[in-house]
Amino acid sequence: MLNPWLALAAGADPRERAVAVRRAHADFLTDGTVRPGVRPVVAESWRRCAGARVRPAEVAEVDMSDADLAAHRVQHPLAQVMPLVRELLGGIADDGEHLLSVCDEYGRMLWVEGHPQVRRRAERMNFVPGSRWAEARVGTNAPGTALAVDHAVQIFSAEHYCLPVQQWTCAAAPVHDPRTRRVIGVLDITGGDHLAAPQSLALVQATARAAEAQLAALGTLPDRARLQVLGRDEAVLHRGGGSVRLGRRHSEIVTLLAARPDGLTGQALAWELYGEREVNPVTLRAELSRLRQLLGTFLASRPYRLTQPVDTDAGFVADALRTDPASALAAYRGPLLPESEAPGIVGMRRRLLGGLRQALLGAGEPALLRDWVATGWGEDDLEVWEALLALVPAREHAVLTARVAALRADYGLYGAR
């Protein structure tokens, strides 16, 4: 059986496959139909790209200046293993037909190395240091898709969502923090159709594992900043061995920026904080000035962004929803900044709460539903009470039926379903 992460079956003709995938890609862009034969990992990526409204003619944007890129490289943990990465993958880059690239956890290119002529060709699609290759930005591509699904993957020819990239084939593998297993970046090799061979994916996977092993041996990964926002109106930021409690407006600003590592313009941040309210721009600049006095270089501008990745308790819950609803529920300490009325925060709070509820309902485990309705934020959740009633033994129905009936009456409904 074909490895689903490999682009070609053994013995397949790359030219025939490229023609078939190009037709399938054209059909998808026309009416959203996925032809048989498109790999599931590619079909799912195309759907994500369509949902994110990625334009098929899109090219990557360069969103880091040379100075910011240089500082980010020095601080990034993958800088410590670049000699190893070059030793294992540098030969491929030096052969004149491929490029070696390394991205951070947000899909920003940190290093792109290889023959100058190949690099010049790749520059036409902004495959350059400082550009952003996240899947939601520039469509299906090996680095971006590897980050999106947290798995090594090949992307072949027209499997790329955006047309300017379809002359290339690439293989990429994520690199994880050996302590926490969180993704900290991705390694990639990019070149011609011959990179669709199984050996290229195996090589980049092996290099990623070697990089993780070296990081574990070095034991020098810096502690990431952490932000607690669940069940509290004032966030607590932990970094550099210390903690600081943020005021309510500063809590909203840091939470919004932590969720958007590429930053927000002043106008976008004002909208997330104030919505349609008319607020003097000086008000926001004053808040940001006071926050910068508190956080120093941790807060940057143009656009406004945090200069280091921040793990949030809300982010952990969101990540756990996909695979482990029990862990997500255990980590959920209450609504995100519950008293905040900032539109951006309200949206984040509703999405997280809704996602958690749906994960619990989908899991169909009475113990998890019981834990939810035992909380202050879940005790009046009629839908969960009804789901619990449908799952428990008949001997427990009397108490639960009474609770469901009481809630339905409170909501102006009558009779239990």
Automatic annotation (TrEMBL):
<dbReference type="InterPro" id="IPR003018">
    <property type="entry name" value="GAF"/>
</dbReference>
<protein>
    <submittedName>
        <fullName>Transcriptional regulator</fullName>
    </submittedName>
</protein>
<dbReference type="InterPro" id="IPR029016">
    <property type="entry name" value="GAF-like_dom_sf"/>
</dbReference>
<feature type="domain" description="GAF">
    <location>
        <begin position="116"/>
        <end position="214"/>
    </location>
</feature>
<dbReference type="Pfam" id="PF01590">
    <property type="entry name" value="GAF"/>
</dbReference>
